[in-house]
Write a structure and sequence with these properties.
By secondary structure, the chain is α+β, with helices and mostly antiparallel strands. Among the domains are: about 160 residues, Roll (Mannose-Binding Protein A, Chain A), CATH 3.10.100; about 100 residues, Ribbon (Laminin), CATH 2.10.25; about 80 residues, no CATH class. The chain is built from seven helices and 40 strands. Strands 1, 2, 3, 4, 5, 6, 7 and 8 form an eight-stranded mixed sheet that branches. The longest helix is centred in the C-terminal third of the chain and has 30 residues. GO terms for molecular function: calcium ion binding; carbohydrate binding.
């Protein structure tokens, strides 16, 4: 199998011819041996010459000196040499001044410009310098050699994108092949593009070429029609038949014979359809993609205006496009799953509980047990009736809150209630007080009028003249500032308050005493105004005595 994968051909090429390549010299002689497999062909030339002449000879037909990157290539060389002695140029040359023995290719480079390889077989040697190339011997060993010295021949490699299979003759017919690089013989495993096959005694000459429809390599000839069916099915892609000794090709249903009379092509091959072609027996008809319609000529396609179709394809706005359409919505609507839906104001509304779209905006509402906060219509407050309601607690039940004016109360059963604070017990109102849920209302007695939220003042004469009846009138509105919630005071706070009251009383007494002394004990003769009769008499005596002196 390895020998089948690496075919090699040996051939000779003259030294003098190699030296003058490119100057209009005659064609080089054919290789002494060659083999092809799928995409690669190898040839051997037993013609002495230097490395440059050998490389030019390989390049003359689109090849290059052989690269040996595996043991498979080594087997091919062994097959082509056929025990013949001598040294042949390989495609290795030294691009640097000296070799590097430590490296696998010793610093050499393939003529293809790379250094990739999985194989080497060097003759042991030390470091060498100069213009060096590589030869291979019958023992398959690689040896460094000066590039300008002649070798006994060279190995060429040709690469092709595809190839034709070998033909299978019958009835004693013989085949001879010839490759584009000049190799001839009958034992090739594959033939590259441009190879010819000579069939005797049929007198046929076939050419390896690419099929017009598929581009695959196949055997053909310039004359249309089939050749004898016993050789490669007459060259027919379909079936080959011989009626009255005349071979002809036939194609399966849905296809027809191509111009060469051997290949089978679709009836749509070369059809003028702009978009789609559908085979119809040995004919065809054209079709267009969705959004287009067939033109009057039966082959071109024209755009269909989908926006004028009935029924309409869009709910609101339609824009026709090339081969299709786009649906859009009016202002105030948005596209949701292919339909125009009104844009909901509630999607951006900050309602605590529920939201309802209304003309021009949205409206918030609350769940049962809650009412809308009159100060902020987007918030919901607890609706506490009969002076109590359930507290709002977090998931853990440890943190609970109540509305303003209510006090939190934890029941033994674990329920947390909000209990209304009776603000009237705190004597916030000067006269009369009415407790409400979460607040209170102050009233004034007859003859008084409200002064502020909690206090009243007597009705003046001017108020009476203005028609003020003296009745306190309707209840005073809920105070704007709710008094703090009643809470049990800490004992330390009670002691502090008591001490503060006592200190304040002592300060007031001291101030009163000081004022009294200042008023009732003036110096000298004024002392009698506030003293007793006896004190007055003593004071007068003191004054008389002083005058006598």
């Amino acid at each position: 199998m390895r020998r089948l994968l690496l075919p090699l051909l040996l051939a000779g090429l003259g030294l003098g011819l190699g030296l003058v390549l490119g100057l209009g010299e005659p064609e080089p002689p054919a290789p002494s041996g060659a083999q092809c497999l799928e995409h690669d062909c190898f040839a051997v030339f037993w013609t002495p010459g230097p490395f440059a002449a050998a490389s030019a000879a390989c390049e003359r037909h689109g090849g290059h000196l052989m690269t040996v990157r595996s043991t498979v290539a080594e087997d091919a060389i062994e097959l082509l040499l056929r025990k013949r002695g001598g040294r042949l140029w390989l495609g290795l040359r030294l691009p640097t001044l000296c070799t590097e023995p430590a490296r696998r290719l010793r610093g050499f480079q393939w003529v293809t410009g790379d250094t990739g390889t999985d194989y080497d077989n060097w003759v042991p040697s030390g470091r060498r310098c100069g213009q060096l190339c590589v030869t291979v011997s019958r023992e398959l060993s690689w040896e460094e050699r000066r590039c300008d010295e002649p070798a006994d021949g060279f190995l060429c490699e040709y690469n092709y994108p595809d190839s034709c299979p070998r033909l299978s003759p019958s009835d004693g017919a013989s085949l001879t092949y010839r490759t584009p690089f000049g190799a001839a013989g009958g034992d090739f495993l594959a033939l590259p593009h441009g190879s010819t096959a000579f069939v005797s005694p049929m007198g046929l000459q076939l050419l390896c070429e690419a099929a017009a429809d598929s581009g695959k390599m196949r055997w053909g000839r310039s004359e249309p029609g089939a050749w004898p069916c016993r050789l490669d099915n007459g060259g027919c892609e379909g079936s080959c038949e011989e009626l009255d000794g005349t071979p002809s090709c036939a194609c399966p249903a849905g296809k027809k014979l191509g111009p060469d009379g051997r290949s089978c092509v679709s009836p749509c091959a070369g059809a003028p359809c702009e978009q789609h072609c559908v085979p119809d027996g040995e004919g065809f008809h054209c079709m267009c993609s969705e959004g287009y319609e067939l033109g009057p000529d039966g082959s071109s396609c024209q755009d269909v205006d989908d926006c004028v179709k009935v029924p309409e394809v869009c709910e609101q706005v339609c824009y026709n496009t090339e081969g299709g359409f786009e649906c859009h919505c009016h202002r105030g609507y948005e596209m949701v799953e292919g339909h125009c839906k009104p844009i909901s104001s509630c999607s951006t509304g900050p309602c605590d509980h529920t939201c309802e779209d209304v003309p021009g905006g949205y409206q918030c509402s609350c769940y049962n047990g809650y009412v809308v906060n009159p100060k902020n219509p987007t918030e919901c407050l607890q609706k506490c009736e009969d002076g109590r309601c359930l507290a709002e607690c977090d998931a853990s039940g440890l943190y609970c809150v109540c509305p303003d004016g209510f006090l939190l109360d934890h029941l033994p059963n674990g329920v947390s209630l909000c209990v209304d604070i009776d603000e009237c017990e705190s004597n916030h109102c000067e006269h009369n007080c009415t407790n409400t849920a979460g607040s209170y209302i102050c009233h004034c007695q007859p003859g008084y009028m409200p002064f502020d939220v909690n206090h009243c003042i007597p009705i003046s004469q001017e108020d009476n003249e203005d028609g003020y009846s003296g009745d306190s009138g309707p209840p005073w509105p809920v105070p704007s500032h709710i008094p703090p919630k009643a809470e049990h005071l800490h004992p330390g706070a009670l002691v502090g308050i008591t001490m503060g009251v006592l200190c304040a009383a002592l300060v007031l007494l001291a101030v009163g005493y000081h004022l009294a002394r200042k008023r009732c004990h003036p110096p000298s003769s004024m002392e009698y105004k506030c003293g007793s009769p006896r004190e007055k008499e003593m004071g007068l005596q003191q004054v008389s005595a002083s005058q006598k002196v």
